[in-house]
Sequence to fold (128 residues):
Amino acid sequence: MRAWPALFAAIALEVTGTLSLKLFASQSWQLPLTYVLLAASYVLLAQAFRRIPVAVAFAVWEAAGLLLITLLGTVLLGEHLTPKQGLALLGLMAGAALLHRGTHESGNTSNTNTKPVRQEALRREVSA
Fold:
């Protein structure tokens, strides 16, 4: 699975698992379902970490998850969103976007594996 689809699937599973805690609180099957959804979310997040820098993937996962849970909580559960909370959500999204953009500009989005870089540095030291 590609990194970004894995990350977005991880977000969807995390949001679904978290909302299931509230939506199905009186159901006996709810807790195992939540565990399965959250565990699957972490498995997909680990897949995303293979190609996306950890800081970017985790920031997007957290920010998008918080945004979706908050918005779905207001729509599905009738929870209230204050203007300060809305501003905080915008700040989270802006922070995740800036972190992704900063990583992209540094040329560090293709792979987080640094082993080839270290091997090249060692070769230069040995040949010098």
Remarks:
- The mean pLDDT is 83.
- The chain is about 80% helix and 0% strand.
- Residues 54-76 form the longest helix (23 residues).
